[in-house]
Each structure stands twice: as structure tokens, then as C-alpha cells.
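Two quick folds needed for the group meeting slides. Do the first one here.
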Amino acid sequence: MPSLSNIFPNSKDKIPLYEKDELSNYEDEWQGKEYISNILKQYLISFSMSPFNVSETYLQVQYQKSKFYASVDTFPDDLKEAETEINMMSTNVWDEAKDKKAKTKKEKKEAENEVIKRKDIEVERIERLGDGVWKPIHQIIECENEGWTSLLKGSFTSWIYNVSSTISQPFLEELLNDIFDIYEDIDPRTNILSHMIVGVALSPLELVKTRLIIQSTATPVKKYRGAFHCMQTIVNEEGGMRGLYAPRYVIPAFIYHTLVPTLRIISSHILNDYLLLTPFYNPVLYPLVNTLLLAAEVVIITPLEMARKRIQCQIKKPSSRQQQLMLINSGLNEPVKFETAVEVSPIPYTGILNVIKRVILEEGNDYNDEGNGNAFTQLWYGTKSLYRGFWQILIRRFIQMAETMNDKVDDW
């Protein structure tokens, strides 16, 4: 290969040192400004999207028991008839013992109701949230114990998550492309793999954000006083670092962060390769079709989002001796109770499918509707309940898509 001195006699083989230093300093300064600009942009996005994130989380986590489910007795008709026959054949001694037992249960139940009543006085939860985008936000603002400041809960954690994901995911994708000698601009394999790895690695931040948002503002003693305190409390009370990366959190995160980029790549393939649309030659049709495809993606991921957040709200009680020692070392005799801003399910969920099944069977119709109907009606209302927070997720994904398209236009 000829040197520069052979082509230009008066030139040297390398650029003068002062020119290289000026160019290098200029590039470093420009990259530094670009990083700062991206960080500030992510902060503004996280701050402005916070009301939608809070209302979305409240809607998806709130346990809205259906009147159809509540109206069904716990005993089938044949069991009730059998119980009646047994009562008719019972002796007076049995009746007296049964009355005494029933009286004891009644007194115990009254005592429990009194405790629940006192707790309700201390912490008043938000009433049943309505559908739509603005109605839940309005209800949160109008709630005396929450107010407009509650709409900013979790914004700092969202900002940390967005900045970390924005920086680490492209870096990891480029690193994977170099490792596997891939020279395409976007390779589906490395793109999905990088999103999945980063999503699972940052899943504790999503766990912290959900718990901070769902925590009641009105509780006198907060279980979590901030993002770092929440993470420290989970480590102390739920089994160390295994509490942050427990399978009940990691498996849904793995599925979610694998499914989301996969759906986006499929949508991009439909747009670019099948429909042959581009944002430059089809400035109207391209964003319209892209928005429709984005809505289809949200239809698929919304039930998964609901399942993830409901599982994230469940606190695992210390069971082993090691966890008990961690609790004692943290300086607490017992964990501070986690008071939620909305009512959550009294029975813990066992997994994603269990959440979806129970939402369909237990939740559904509007509170003002009559509590009678057939199985098909309950199935319809229950399936509809899986999509609470749909519009909030669609707005959030639309803003992310617009930001990505804007970056592509700038690169072009």
C-alpha cells in the first residue's frame, strides 16, 4: 500500500499531531454533549410520562372483583342440600356445640372486621378506577390521600432505567455483532438477545418502580422511602440478591423483553419488506400503518404487563433461617407493612397464567352493573379486564416509536 509521501511528495505519512488532537478533542466534546443531551431528554420523557405510568400501574394492579363472581355461592346446590339434610338429622348436643362454635366464629369475625375498619381509617385506598386515559388520572388527583403529587411516583426510577437501557442495549448489540461477525445494520438475533439480556439485568429497577408507584402516599410509615431504600429492603427481607432476581420476577421479565423486540421486528418487516413503505416516500401512510401495528403489539403485551406488575406487588415473607437472620440484622423485629394505594388481590398469584386465569374469572363488569349474567358475559367482561391500562401503554410505546423515528431521521 503506497504511503502518503509517495502520492503527495510534500506530505508526511501521518496527520500532524496538533490537527489530530484538535479533531479528537472536537469529537470527544461533541460526544459528551450528545450524551448529556440524551440524558436530559430521557429525564424529560420520564417526567412527562409519569402520570400515564402511575395510572397504568394502578389500573393493572387494582383488584376489581366482579359482581358475577361475588354472587356465586361457595357451595354448589347439591352440597347445600346435603348440608340441610345433615342439619335435620343432627342432635341437640351437636346443635349446641355448633351454636357455640358459630358464636365463637362470629366474635372472631367481628374482631377482625374492627381491625380492618381501623386500618381502613388509617389508609384509605383509591376507589374503583374507571377506563380511558384521563378519568383514572382525574380520580387519582381528586383522591384526598393521593393528589397530583402521586402522579410523579417512580419517575426517578423510570429515568434511571431508561438511561441505563438506552446506553447499554446498543452497546451490547454492537458487541454481539462484533463477536459473531455480523455486519448488518440491525440483525434480529442480536437485537432480540441484547434487549433480553439488558431487560433481565435491569428487571430489579422495574420491580422497584412498581412497588414505589403502588405504595400508598397516606401511610404514616412508608415501607419504601425511595428507590435505593426499596432495593435494600428487598435484599434484607426477601432473601438477599436472590430476592431481586427471584424466578417469579426474572421469568416474566425474560418473556416480556424477548417478546417486545420480536413483535417490533415483525412489524418493521411487514412495513419495509411486505408493504414496501418508508417514512421518506410515504410520510402519511407509513406512520398510520406503523401505529396500527403498534396497537396490535400492545394488544398482545398488555395482559403480560398486568401479570408482571401484579406479581411484582407480592412480597415474599421470610421463611428460612437465613432470611430471618437478615431481617434481624436490618434492625427490625418484623417487616413494615406494605400499604397499597389501591386494593390488590388478597390471594397471591402463582404465575403469569394464574394471573390471566383469575382476572378473567374473578374480575370484570362495571361496579354499577347488576351482578347476574351467564358464563359468556363473565368471560367477556373478564377478558376485557385484562386490557386495563391499554391506552396508557399505547401512548408510552407511541412516544418511544416517535423518538426512534426522529433519531433515524437525524442519522439520515
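Then this one, please, same format:
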Amino acid sequence: MALLVNVHLESFPSALEIAAKNGNSDIIELLLEANADVNATKVRCPSALQLASFHGHRNIVQLLLKHGADVHVQTQQFPPALQGAASKGQNEIVELLLDNGADIDAHDQQYPTALQSAVADCNKQLVESLLDKGASINAQGGLLPPPVNIASANGNRSILKLFLNRNMNAQVQGETWARALLVAAFHGRRRMVEFLIENGADFNQQVQSSGAFLLPSGETLITALQAAAGGGHKAIIKLLIKSGADVGASDHRSPTPLQAAVTGGHKDAIQLLLDNGAAVDDHNQHCPTAIQRAIINCDRRTVELLLCRGADANLQGGQLAPPLYIAIAMGHRGIVQLLLDHATNVDTQCERYGTALMLMSSLRLRDIAKVHNHNIPVMPNHYSRRLDALMLETRRDDVARTKFAN
């Protein structure tokens, strides 16, 4: 009889697993009395305990545990019992599994911890229960960020208060909380940002580890003000600046708040940062200037604003060519004219492309070029072909960032 109850196809669940999923306790009892294997699994089929926990059948979970079900069993395509129950908000089953030896911080690359799932579902009762039983607020698995980050992104202050009350420090300190502030700023959670600052979060701390956010350009945001600027959240920018955030904060690889705002095309944020002293020409070997970024975005209004605020139209930063070269090669006639009106040097020699006049000539902007020089030099054919192709390629900003290196 035992042989029959344990027979199943390779990719099809056993009788016990089907009954556990459907909540058929009477059938479960019959199968267990017939010596069904309580811990049987296959690559594509979870155990009976995993299924009963996931689908919320508490009485069956109790029955399976009584008959020796292993709380640690996991399969490739289904979460372990504890994580499955937590992800579905099965609070009583989570409690039952923990009482029977389940690892409260269990996680892997595929599945998050029970606490991460509870926070993501805004399940305060379960979060509190897990914390009372010793769950780590730093354990992280699956594709979810750490629990503190999840609460910040969701704007869930009640859950974050639970974390704060269990923090070893009297105030919010360290990179964990700086990252939480960055997350809240990036998602536009003003009240959460305010809450974290009031509880001592360091708004100028740079978050260097994994968990920071990226701009569309692929650049990393490492401070709360950068994150707020990159997301265009004007109210949060005001709050952070009022609290004393550094408007020029960056490192050698991350953009300044102003550069982040320009990359995101957030005009109100750009204006606000400039009004509060942001340096218009900040750049380094990895980060282009604000005006270079505006040109790549085809954002003539921002280019004009930056020029009026004193931006150097000849300045080159990062791996991009000078502003005029970018505008010419991308065919932005209006921006080209703006730059020329602000005394951009058309005779500057670029090692890869020659002078700006040569580039204008090659890319069919001869009508503008003639105004500045009646004797336009002729560019070699191979140079002309390369730049014609470049003009077509650089319609997308990600291509522009890699093709304009000198």
C-alpha cells in the first residue's frame, strides 16, 4: 500500500501533495496512515508542508508536522514553508513553523526572508512577531531590498518605528539608515524623509554599498539629495537643503544633485538647486557637466537656463565631447545656435573630430557654419562617413555617452 500512495509522475505532484494543496485533511490522514512519504519532493514539485503552508491550511500543517514533516525542505521552484507562509500573510502558520524549528532568517538568492515578505506586505502584526522572535533587520534574500529599505520605499512609518525601537543605538545611525533615507527620497516619500531626519538619520552620509539607485544614465546616486534631485521631488529637495544637506555632494563617480536633476529632466528641481547655490559647472573625469547632459536630453530650455546662470559652454567633463560637438553631431540646430550665441569657441581642436566648423560642415549644418567662417575646411571622406553614422547612432543618450569620448 505504501508503494501505491507514493507513486507519482516526475513532473506531477503525489497524492499527498495534491491533498495538502487543496486542504483535504481527511485524505491527508488516510494517506499518512498508509505510510505516505511526508517529505517527498521533486525538482518541480514542493513538499506537502510547503504547499499547505503557502495556501494557508493550518490544520494540515499541524498534522504534517506531527508526522515528522521537515520544516527546512526546499525545492527550486517553490519557497520553503516559512517563507511561503510569510509571503501570503499566514501569520499563525509562521508562528507554528517557528515553534517547530524553522530558521527565522532563512533566505537565498531566489527567496527573501520572512521579515522581508512581511514588510513588503505591510503586515505589521507579523513584522512585530518576527522581531520579537529575533529576526534580523539586516538579513536579505531574493530580489527584495533589506527590510528597512522596503519600509522606507513604502512610506510605512509604523513598521520603521518598530525597527527603530529595536535598534541598539538611541538614534538612527550608520549606512543602513542612510540608505533608508536615500530610498525614501528617491521614491518621493516626504513624510518618511522628515521622520528619518527627525530621528537622526545622516542626510549627508554617502551610501557606497549595494542598494543605491541608478539614474537612466547608469550613474549611482549615493546621497539623499542626489536621489531626491534624480527623482525630481521638489518638496524633499527643499526639506533636505533646509536641514543642511550639501547641494554639491558627490564623489568621483557619482553626479552632483544638479547633474542628477538635469539628467532626469526635472526643471523645477534644477531651478531650486541653482537658487540654493549649486555649482553649474561641476564635473570630473567620470561625470559630464550639467550642460552636456541637457544637450544629450535635447533640452533646449535647460541649456538656456544653465547658460544664463553662467555655465561654461566650452567645458568638457566625463567621457563626452565638448558641448558644441554633442549638439552638432546630434543635429540640435537650436542648441547649436544657443551655444554659438554664448561665445562658444568654434575653432577648438578636438583630437578625434577636428574643429567644430569641420564637424558642422560634415553634418550638413553649413548654413550655421558659414555665419562664423566663410572658408569652411573640408573634412576627409572617411571622417565625414564616421560622423554621419555617429549622428544617427547618438539619437539615444546611452549611445551618446559612449561614442563621444575624445
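Slide caption for protein two: The longest strand covers residues 213-214.
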